[in-house]
Write a structure and sequence with these properties.
This protein has 451 residues and is an alpha+beta fold. The chain folds into 4 domains: 116 residues, Thrombin, subunit H, CATH 2.40.10.10; 95 residues, Thrombin, subunit H (Beta Barrel), CATH 2.40.10.10; 86 residues, Roll (Pdz3 Domain); 85 residues, Roll (Pdz3 Domain). Helices cover 20% and strands 36% of the residues. It contains 10 helices and 24 strands. The strands form 4 sheets. The protein has a 6-stranded antiparallel beta barrel with strand order 1-2-3-6-5-4. Strand 15 and strand 16 form a beta hairpin. Helix 8 packs across helix 10. The protein is globular and about 80 Å long.
């Protein structure tokens, strides 16, 4: 019996991994068949109804990536075992219809590096997909297919999620289409490091609903059948632990990607660090949780609002702030110009501060480079250092004009424009890491953002 189960599983996976036929001309089915009248009311549980209603909105995302292999000297490979040329790899993930005009939402890591993307609807229709935009920091991607009147999944809110409430995850784990799993909300506001993607994700929903490879990009729904999160399989060896991106956070990211092709994060202009009991004791303040303001950029919304270094932000609106990541997550969803009410502890007393985040200045990254590291650069043989401020950390380290910046926070940069963008995206980090090339050597140097 056990052997037959394994055989059946491998057969199902092999079917799912077969190449899908070229795009059909038929219109995708817009809704599933009604639940048969012969099914009793006792069997029509809320989970059955949720699954039935959402399955037509869930899609299979198939990607192809072409990898160029290095040519091998025939002397070392006379029989052509290794060879060169290109290899094409395919992978499967999940997604769902965000709006009925052809907008599909999935995970960034599902489509990363893809040279071709196809979306397969619940009735088997294959549609070629165009990548609209991605946001690696939230692991989201937006696709568009040439189809109208698709069955869109109802989108709810993640703001009122409760620990312990029932949730339903739908996707295509291991290529097994239309798989439904259930569980509860195990925790909220999780920070999850991902070695595979080289970053830490914040403010994730944790659930014990099974989320496996292939589930990534599918919807997480509440018992009312509304999307409250986007599933992401970021811990490969997880047992009974799954994560999802809160839909309230995803909504702004998706809207920005559709409008601009990239995420427009509103800028506050305050560098913060997570306050710890040890740090609070060292500074002599009586707050053990929150985001400690360590730098205010001149001309920023934070300066205009009257924020000061040494303030501890403990609330955004009515949401408690217990870390720098939590503050960053809350402010990232705020549209530019919209007032945000903060509660800060200053000199031992709470006080309200209203800040209006704005779009970051175009040269923000280069301003950060000068204020934090004391460096000015130009486009000559890459990103070449042209000036080192006397008395700056860079001068004390020994950096010189002619040294070349080749990376920021582990990401390669080849132009001043790329450097400016990378540093702008790092404006709220507690530190930046610059990779500096001198001759044959590359040095990784850390520059704290705090004053």
């Amino acid at each position: 019996m056990k052997r037959s189960r394994v055989t059946l599983f491998l057969f199902a996976v092999s079917l799912a991994c077969k190449p899908v036929a070229e795009s059909q001309t038929v219109t995708p089915r817009q809704a599933g068949a009604a639940i048969p009248q012969t099914v009793s009311a006792a069997r029509r549980t809320p989970i059955v109804v949720v699954a039935h209603n959402v399955l037509p909105s869930v899609v299979n995302v198939q990607t192809e990536a072409t990898i160029r292999r290095r040519e091998i000297d025939p002397f070392f490979d006379p029989f052509g075992f290794f060879g060169g040329g290109n290899r094409t790899y395919t992978s499967l993930g999940s997604g769902f219809v965000w709006s009925n005009d052809g907008i599909i939402v999935t995970n960034n890591h599902v489509v990363e590096g893809a040279s071709r993307i196809s979306v397969i609807t619940s009735d088997g229709t294959q549609l070629s997909a165009k990548l609209i935009g991605v946001d690696p920091d939230s692991d989201l991607a937006v696709l568009r297919v040439d189809a109208k009147n698709l069955a869109a999944a109802p989108v709810g809110t993640s703001a009122d999620l409760m620990i312990g409430e029932t949730v339903v995850a739908v996707g295509n784990p291991f290529g097994l289409s239309g798989t439904v799993t259930t569980g509860v909300v195990s925790a909220l506001g999780r920070s999850v490091p991902s070695k595979e993607q080289g970053r830490t994700f914040t403010d994730f929903i944790q659930t014990d609903a099974s989320i496996n490879p292939g589930n990534s990009g599918g919807p997480l729904l509440n018992i009312e059948g509304r999307v409250v999160g986007i599933n992401t399989a970021i811990l490969g060896n997880a047992q009974g632990i799954g994560f999802a991106i809160p839909v309230d956070r995803a909504r702004k990211v998706i809207q920005d990607l559709l409008r601009y092709g990239q995420v427009h994060s509103a800028w506050v202009g305050a560098v913060t660090t997570t306050i710890t009991p040890e740090e609070a004791k060292r500074l002599g303040i009586h707050v053990t949780r929150g985001a400690l303001v360590s730098r205010i950029f001149s001309g920023s919304p934070a300066q205009a609002a009257g924020l000061r270094s040494g303030d501890v932000i403990t609330e955004v609106g009515d949401k408690p702030v217990d870390s720098r990541e939590a503050l960053s997550t809350y402010t990232a969803t705020v549209p530019s110009g919209q007032p945000v009410q903060l509660t800060v502890i200053r000199e031992g007393s709470p006080r309200p501060v209203t800040v209006r985040p704005s779009d970051p200045p175009r040269d923000l990254g280069l301003r950060i480079l000068w204020e934090i590291a004391g460096l000015r650069v130009g486009n000559s043989r890459g990103v070449t250092i042209e000036e080192v401020a006397g008395g700056s950390r860079s001068a004390n380290i020994g950096l010189q004009p002619g040294d070349v910046i080749v990376g920021v926070n582990g990401n390669e940069v080849r132009s001043v424009e790329q450097l400016n963008s990378a540093l702008t995206n790092s404006a709220e980090r507690s530190s930046i890491v610059l990779d500096i090339a001198r001759g044959r050597f590359i040095y990784s140097l850390t520059f704290p953002m705090a004053v």
